[in-house]
Structure formats: structure tokens, C-alpha cells
């Protein structure tokens, strides 16, 4: 049994070995095992995949995905939470999926910029501005826009109306619209008066405006124009034509006021007791007027007219009655005719109120109606067209110039026809009317059309006058047939309106400011907005047309509006000039905005000390080595202090020192103090050593003195003689007085002379004074006569201090008791 077991075990081993060999042979024939590694974005459907062999190492890569507003942090295997960083090695033995994890980026809240648009409210202009969220925007001034015939009423912001200067907190794009209040308009009417309420003129005036009352061009028969009355005021207060009615705030009506003219009648009578047609009562004279007596038109059978009886005197036709202030009777004076007259018949005319004689006629001649008979009488708004014969039922009308045939006295009665009047009116076509004439129908009215400035109309130019369908020029003469009311209407042409827009930058955004202007308007280009600043590092250089050449226009340039125009701001690098002027030379530097400029050292200026650089020559001196943060053109001016030097003047007894400015001429004090020693008198010469020149530094000047030997007076009190010695002590001459053997001498010191000791030698022998008088023997050999006086030439030797001798001097006075001067030489 034991051997069977061993055989069985060996068999099993063999079978196992064969099995393993078979297995190994089968493995060598199979494919490699692979797995997929998937990367997911973690926030959308983005994925990437990679296939690796079993056991390979997968290194977690840099995140291939991007996510706005987030930053990648790490990878986690799907279904787990463990963070795996980029670069982590992962052995692959199965399919694996990794998911990206992110952290949201922190984004600080940045205020948003909003646009504020300010509109004029009627479509002609607007301005815009960029305002940061939450900031206050100050509403523009009331005069930012204007609108003809309106007043500014505020700014519409949302549902509110706010005032100029108010502030609005901006939280979104905002539209601000100007609110306008129409200025009220009022009618001004001027009526004719005298019962006729037809207007002479009508005008439309804006509230607060004015109106000038027109000249009166109409006529009211028998009346004088007094002026205009305001129907809303005192009707007895008259306003003259040309009066300006100011500050009209309501409808106004003015009526022409008339005063009836006072008339008196000059009655021409055939006889003193005449009545009816024998009285001419048609002669009406205004109060204070005059009347010329006419030819007599009465007929008195068998008599001829002789004269008129006026105020008790007979006067002839042509006589003038002056200053008529009452009714007057004037009676015809007759005389018998020399020869029989043919039978004549009288003619008279009447209007029903007044009668005037018309002469006479015979049956053979008939009567011709005078051509001017239509002027015999007048009736307001009527014209006399002919005459009918009183009592003639046929109604025949005789015209001026026609002949009436009859055989009896005749009265012609006036036939009237009502006059139809029409007006000629000027109109501006917009509510202003002015009556310039009121004429009888059919009248041809000659009228010179007014100048172009008769009326004005906002936004329009005058283009002529229109009558019917025809247009005429101002100043043209027209002949109008007035057979209806005629209106002459101003013709207007609308002035084209163009928009002028300025563009500039603010915080990187383009801002525009627009305004509407009429064509032909002249305007000046604006300055850069005062409340704005150019972009950083730039400066405003002017305006350039959006559609134009390269011309840059300076603010203030006058432009005429002919089309829409846009101007954009031209910016240049903000380069500023910094100048340093020392009064003779200017050093300049150009520097960009915010830059620094080194402060230069000034050139030396002889005689001056530099104090520093001053902005525009004012304020305090610069203290640093640089001018920092330049933001504008600057000019610095040097200030200098003139140097002062010590100038000393030295005199015999001291000195004086002065401070004198550079370049000035020093002037020493005037030294009037002469001085002397035993030998000389020293006098200031007025000069110095060295010679005085303009100051260039410290300097000492020494006074120069001239010297003069001291003078001593010697008084001769008696006679005697004197020997005259030369410088060697030898006698060179002598003088002797005839009447004396001795001469008495008094020696006196000059004022200011300092003599310590002195001796007088006479003939070589020292003599002394007795009571101050020296007795000197004197022998006179020669007399010198000058101008009738006796003089002597002499020489005396004496010694004192360092004086050795005196020289010969000519005496200047008579020797008898005279004083003689001697010159001391040392």
C-alpha cells in the first residue's frame, strides 16, 4: 500500500506540472489588459479619457478644463472625497474617473458707470455725462437750454420735477428732461373810436412785453384826435401816439379819442331881414379861424351888388374876417342898376341844414351846376354826387357841369351816396396787425411797403410782402385799388436749424454736448468744460471738426452756422514748460504732466547775492532741488539782493565808515575842519587817495590836504630900522625910518596857530619884548609908495619850534601903524 501511495503522488505532480506548462503556453498567447482613466470637468459635460495598460502609473495632470470665475483646486476619484493634487501618481488596475474641484474667484463689487442724458425737452439739444453708480449728479443751471417764448420750469427726473442745482443719486442710466412753461400771450387791440369799434391795429404780446401805440393815420371829419384811452383805466387820461406800454400782463384794449371841432357860421344875407334861400348859412369857420368874404351870389332885381356890410362898415369881397369866435351876420349892400336888367332868377344850394347862394341865371342862359359844387357841403361817410331841384318830383339829378333850364328861382338839394370804406392792414402773419389806411372804395392808394424790420419773428427771416398772390420787396411802391379790405402779409422763410455738438472724453467714455442753432448764427467755440478735466497725462489743445480738415480751432473762435457740425476735443501729451528767468537769461524745460524739473543754479551776477527762485516772482523761494509734480506751465523768477560794502573815509583826526551798495558812487562827508602845526596850515582839498570810483568792494579813502605856511601879523608901533637877512643869515638890505631911530613891533599869533616858543633876532641879536612889544632899531633907506601910501619891504629872521626863517613879503597896508603879514615856512 505504501508504494501505491507514492506512485499516485508522483502521478499527481506530473499532471500538475503538465497543467502548468499548458497554462503558461496559453498565457503567452493572450492580449494585454487595459483600463480607461476619465477626467471630468466637474461643472458641465466636458470629459477627457486616457487608456493605460494594467499596472501603469497615471499621473494626475494639470487641469485641462477652464471655468470662468473659478480657480482649479484638486482632483478626487469619483465617489470619494480624498483630494489628489496635480502630479499625484496613480497605479491603474481598473477603470478610474477623477473629477475636478473648483473654488469660486472673489470678485469685489466695482461700481458701474451710468450715462446721464439731459435733454432740452423740445428736441433741439442734449448733454450727456458719465456718473459712477451711487454718486450725486448736480442738475444743470436753468440757462443750460433756452426756448423761445418759454421759461424754464425745472428738470423732470422720473416722476419728480426738481430745481437746478438739486442733486440726484445715480443708480442706473438716467434721462433728465427740461420742463418749460409757455410764456402767456396777450392781445393788444387799438380801436378807431367815434362809434366805430373796428380795430386800427391788433398785436399779440408775450407776458411782460411792451407795445408802442401807433401813429394816427385815420381822419374823423369835424374832429381832432386827442390820443388813446385804455378801456380798462381812466378814459379821461389820454396817451399820445408813440407811447410805450410796458409790462403787459393781460389783454389790453385802447380806443382813439376824438374831440368835436367847434364851428361858427358866417351868415351871408341878401338883405338885413332875409330868410330862407336869401341867406347863405353854409360858411362854417372853426373857432378862432378866419373867413374871406366871397363874391356876392345873391340876385336883387333892379339892383347891383355894391359891398358887404360887416361890423358897420362896407367892405369888398376878399376882405378877411379874423378870429371868428361867434356867429356873424354879413349883409349885402345894393345900389340901383343904371340900366334895366333882364329878368333873372336866383339859385341856391342846400343840404337840408345849410343853404348857400349859387348866383343867378336867365331864361335864355340857363344855369350850369358849378364843377366844385360837390364840395359845397360835407357829410360824414357820405359823398355828394349831384343835385335835385326842390319841388321837382321827377327826381332828376344834376351833376356838376350839367345845365339847368328854368324860368323861376331854384333851390338845388344835395343828393348823397354813402361812402364804402375799406382798410389796408399790415400783418406779420402770426397775430400782429396794424391798419395803415382807411380809404374810400375804388380809391387807388399809393403805399411804400415797410422795411424788413417792421416785424420780427423768432426762427424766421423776412422774405417780402404778400398782397393777394403777388409778393413784393420791402421799400417797393404799390398802387392798391381799394375795393375791399386789403391785408399786406409779411412773408417768412424758416431759418434752418442745425445742431452743434462737442465731443470729449470723461473716464474713458465719450461725452457729447449738443445745442440747436439757427443757420447764420455766429457763435464762439466753447472752452473745455470747466467742471471736467482732460484724460490723465493729456491736455486740451482745441477743437477739430468731425468732418473736416486737420485744422485745430482754439476756444473762442467765431463760427457761422451753415450745417450740422461736430467738434471733438483734441488732446496732446500734457507737456508743460517750466521757465527760470534770472532777469537776463531764461532757462526753460519741457516736462510731461506730473514730472519733475531740476532747479538750475543761476549765473553769477556781479555785485549781487542770489536769494532764490520765486514762482512768478512772488511768494516764497523754492527750497527743494526739484520742482515736483508739474501740472501747468510755470515761470520762476530769480530774486537778487544787491551787495553792500564798507567804505571808509580817513581824515587827519579820525575816520568814518559807510555801507554803500555795489555800483554806487560813494560820497565822503564834507570836511571843513582844517588843522595846523607849528609850520603849516592844512586845508582839505576835496579829493581822496585813491580817487573815488563806483563801489566794487570794501575800500578805504584817505583825505588829501593842501598845506600853507602859517601867517603872523607884525604891528609896527614906531620908527627904527630893520636889517633884512637872507636864508644864510646875511644882510641883504636894510631900511631906515627918517623920523625915528627905533621901531616898536608887536608879534601876534594867528588864530589856531600853536607856537611853543619864539625869538626875534634884530641885527643878529635876540631881542625880547617889553610888555609884549619888541623895540627894533630901524634905518630906512628906501620908501616904496603904492597908491599914495608909504610901504617898506623887509625881512625878519626869527626862530621857534622847527621854523628856521621867514621870507621877504611885500606889506599890504600903510606902514604907519599898519599890520603886516609874514609867511612862515617850515
From TrEMBL:
It comes from the Bacteria. One of its GO terms (cellular component) is cell envelope. The keyword Ligase does not apply. Residues 456-495 form the Bacterial repeat domain. InterPro entries: Bacterial_rp_domain (IPR044060), InlB-like_B-rpt (IPR013378), Listeria/Bacterioides_rpt_sf (IPR042229). Residues 1-25 form the signal peptide. This is InlB B-repeat-containing protein. It comes from Candidatus Stercoripulliclostridium merdigallinarum. The lineage of its organism: Bacteria, Bacillati, Bacillota, Clostridia, Eubacteriales.
Amino acid at each position: 500500500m505504501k508504494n501505491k501511495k507514492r506512485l499516485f503522488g508522483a502521478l499527481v505532480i506530473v499532471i500538475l506540472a503538465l497543467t502548468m506548462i499548458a497554462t503558461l503556453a496559453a498565457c503567452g498567447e493572450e492580449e494585454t489588459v487595459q483600463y480607461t482613466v476619465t477626467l471630468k470637468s466637474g461643472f458641465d459635460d466636458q470629459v477627457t479619457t486616457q487608456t493605460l495598460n494594467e499596472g501603469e502609473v497615471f499621473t494626475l495632470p494639470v487641469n485641462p478644463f477652464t471655468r470662468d470665475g473659478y480657480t482649479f483646486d484638486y482632483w478626487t476619484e469619483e465617489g470619494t472625497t480624498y483630494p489628489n493634487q496635480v502630479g499625484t501618481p496613480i497605479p491603474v488596475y481598473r477603470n478610474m474617473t477623477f473629477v475636478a474641484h473648483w473654488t469660486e474667484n472673489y470678485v469685489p463689487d466695482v461700481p458701474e458707470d451710468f450715462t446721464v442724458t439731459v435733454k432740452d425737452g423740445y428736441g433741439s439739444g442734449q448733454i450727456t455725462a458719465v456718473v459712477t453708480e451711487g454718486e450725486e449728479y448736480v442738475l444743470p443751471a436753468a440757462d443750460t437750454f433756452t426756448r423761445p417764448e418759454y421759461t424754464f420750469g425745472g428738470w423732470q427726473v422720473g416722476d419728480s420735477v426738481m430745481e437746478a442745482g438739486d442733486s440726484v443719486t445715480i443708480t442706473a442710466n438716467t434721462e433728465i428732461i427740461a420742463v418749460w412753461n409757455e410764456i402767456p400771450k396777450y392781445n393788444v387791440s387799438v380801436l378807431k373810436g367815434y362809434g366805430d369799434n373796428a380795430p386800427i391795429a391788433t398785436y399779440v404780446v408775450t407776458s411782460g412785453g411792451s407795445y408802442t401805440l401807433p401813429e394816427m393815420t385815420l381822419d374823423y371829419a369835424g374832429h381832432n384826435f386827442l390820443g388813446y384811452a385804455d378801456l380798462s383805466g381812466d378814459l379821461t387820461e389820454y396817451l399820445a401816439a408813440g407811447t410805450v406800454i410796458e409790462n403787459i400782463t393781460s389783454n389790453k384794449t385802447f380806443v382813439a379819442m376824438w374831440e368835436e371841432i367847434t364851428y361858427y357860421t358866417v351868415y351871408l344875407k341878401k338883405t338885413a331881414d332875409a330868410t330862407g334861400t336869401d341867406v347863405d348859412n353854409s360858411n362854417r369857420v372853426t373857432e378862432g379861424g378866419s373867413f374871406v368874404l366871397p363874391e356876392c351870389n345873391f340876385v336883387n332885381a333892379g339892383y347891383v351888388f355894391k359891398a358887404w356890410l360887416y361890423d358897420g362898415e362896407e367892405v369888398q369881397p376878399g376882405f378877411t374876417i379874423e378870429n371868428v369866435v361867434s356867429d356873424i351876420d354879413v349883409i349885402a349892400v345894393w345900389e340901383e342898376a343904371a340900366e334895366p336888367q333882364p329878368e333873372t332868377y336866383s339859385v341856391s344850394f342846400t343840404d337840408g341844414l345849410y343853404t348857400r347862394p349859387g348866383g343867378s341865371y336867365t331864361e335864355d342862359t340857363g344855369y350850369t351846376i358849378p364843377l366844385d359844387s360837390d364840395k359845397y357841403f360835407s357829410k360824414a361817410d357820405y359823398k355828394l354826387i349831384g343835385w335835385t331841384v326842390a319841388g321837382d318830383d321827377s327826381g332828376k339829378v344834376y351833376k356838376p357841369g350839367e345845365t339847368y333850364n328854368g324860368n323861376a328861382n331854384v333851390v338845388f338839394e344835395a343828393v348823397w351816396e354813402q361812402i364804402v370804406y375799406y382798410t389796408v392792414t399790415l400783418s406779420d402773419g402770426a397775430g400782429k396787425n396794424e391798419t395803415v389806411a382807411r380809404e374810400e372804395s375804388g380809391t387807388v392808394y399809393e403805399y411804400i411797403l415797410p422795411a424788413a424790420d417792421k416785424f420780427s419773428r423768432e426762427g424766421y427771416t423776412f422774405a417780402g410782402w404778400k398782397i393777394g398772390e403777388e409778393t413784393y420787396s420791402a421799400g417797393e411802391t404799390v398802387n392798391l385799388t381799394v375795393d375791399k379790405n386789403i391785408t399786406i402779409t409779411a412773408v417768412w422763410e424758416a431759418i434752418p436749424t442745425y445742431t452743434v455738438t462737442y465731443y470729449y472724453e470723461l473716464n474713458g467714455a465719450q461725452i457729447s454736448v449738443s445745442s440747436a442753432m439757427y443757420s447764420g448764427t455766429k457763435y464762439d467755440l466753447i472752452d473745455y468744460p470747466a467742471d471736467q478735466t482732460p484724460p490723465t497725462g493729456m491736455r486740451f489743445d482745441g477743437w477739430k471738426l468731425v468732418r473736416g480738415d486737420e485744422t485745430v480751432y482754439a476756444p473762442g473762435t467765431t463760427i457761422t452756422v451753415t450745417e450740422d457740425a461736430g467738434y471733438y476735443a483734441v488732446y496732446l501729451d500734457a507737456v508743460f514748460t517750466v521757465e527760470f528767468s534770472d532777469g537776463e537769461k531764461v532757462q526753460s524745460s519741457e516736462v510731461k504732466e506730473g514730472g519733475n524739473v531740476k532747479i538750475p543754479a543761476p549765473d553769477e551776477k556781479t555785485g549781487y547775492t542770489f536769494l532764490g527762485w520765486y514762482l512768478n516772482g512772488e511768494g516764497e523761494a523754492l527750497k527743494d532741488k526739484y520742482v515736483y509734480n508739474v501740472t501747468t506751465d510755470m515761470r520762476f523768477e530769480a530774486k537778487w539782493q544787491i551787495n553792500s560794502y564798507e567804505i571808509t573815509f580817513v581824515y587827519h583826526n579820525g575816520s568814518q565808515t559807510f555801507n554803500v551798495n555795489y555800483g554806487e558812487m560813494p560820497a565822503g562827508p564834507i570836511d571843513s575842519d582844517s588843522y595846523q602845526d607849528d609850520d603849516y596850515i592844512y586845508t582839505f582839498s576835496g579829493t581822496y587817495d585813491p580817487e573815488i570810483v563806483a563801489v566794487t568792494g570794501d575800500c578805504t579813502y584817505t583825505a588829501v590836504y593842501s598845506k600853507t605856511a602859517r601867517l603872523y601879523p607884525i604891528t609896527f608901533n614906531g620908527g627904527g630900522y630893520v636889517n633884512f637877512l637872507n636864508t644864510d643869515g646875511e644882510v641883504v638890505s636894510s631900511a631906515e625910518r627918517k623920523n625915528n631911530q627905533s621901531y616898536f613891533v608887536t608879534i601876534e599869533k594867528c588864530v589856531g596857530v600853536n607856537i611853543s616858543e619864539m625869538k626875534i633876532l634884530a641885527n643878529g641879536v635876540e631881542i625880547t619884548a617889553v610888555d609884549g612889544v619888541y623895540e627894533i632899531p630901524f634905518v630906512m633907506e628906501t620908501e616904496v609908495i603904492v597908491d599914495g601910501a608909504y610901504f617898506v619891504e623887509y625881512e625878519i629872521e626869527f626862530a621857534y619850534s622847527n621854523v628856521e626863517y621867514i621870507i621877504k613879503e611885500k606889506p599890504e597896508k600903510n606902514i604907519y601903524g599898519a599890520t603886516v603879514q609874514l609867511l612862515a615856512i617850515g
